[in-house]
Design brief:
The protein is α+β, with helices and mostly antiparallel strands and 175 residues long. 40% of the residues lie in helices and 13% in strands. The strands form three sheets. Strands 1-2-3 form a three-stranded antiparallel sheet. Strands 4-7 form a two-stranded parallel ribbon. A hairpin with a 2-residue loop joins β1 and β2. The chain starts with 7 loop residues before the first helix and ends with a helix.
């Protein structure tokens, strides 16, 4: 399932479920295990996008792309490799407790938190193609970091970019 295929109602329902206090089980390496591949993108047993890292450290294209996109658009607030900052939370930790739909909703629509008199705002990126077109990639990379499958730093090796990723990028970016 990709973001562009999700209806806004589904995303809003998932976000509402999370916000209403319905517990989301902690993600683990076992739950994130890649069991199915479609056009170079990997999915877990529940159909959520996930990573596929080979024993020699080669990451799938989408994990690598997520690393690049994260360090292009997200690390300024959330710190390098998703470890957080004084300004924004550690996404490598947060993704242990955020499901795919909630992640998409937060990135697309933004979020505002007020705790102990401190306000933090995650801006909406639903209109930013440099983020929107790569939300699955971002999720996959951060999920790999959250479950300890991807170390800090640039992945040493990557799989080739699949044609489906090239086609999606051209379509989404308007090329």
């Amino acid at each position: 399932m990709q973001f562009r295929k999700l209806g806004s109602v589904v995303v809003l329902v998932l976000a509402s479920m999370s916000a209403s206090g319905i517990a989301i089980a902690e993600d683990t390496a076992e739950k994130a295990k890649a069991v199915k591949e479609e056009d170079g993108k990997w999915f877990d047993a529940d159909g959520n996008p996930t990573f596929n890292i080979q024993p020699d450290g080669t990451v799938d294209w989408f994990t690598f792309s997520g690393y690049r996109r994260y360090h292009s658009d997200c690390h300024v607030c959330h710190g390098p490799d998703g470890v957080g900052s004084s300004y924004a939370p550690a996404l490598a930790e947060s993704l242990k407790h955020i499901d795919y739909g909630t992640f998409l909703s937060i990135v697309a629509e933004g979020r505002k938190n007020i705790q102990a008199g401190k306000e933090s705002v995650m801006p909406a990126f639903g209109d930013n193609k440099n983020v929107y077109c790569y939300m699955d990639d971002l999720y996959i990379y951060l999920r790999a970091r959250a479950v300890g499958a991807a170390p800090r730093g640039r992945p040493p090796k990557k799989a080739e970019k699949p044609q489906a990723a090239k086609d999606h990028e051209a379509s989404c970016m308007g090329g």
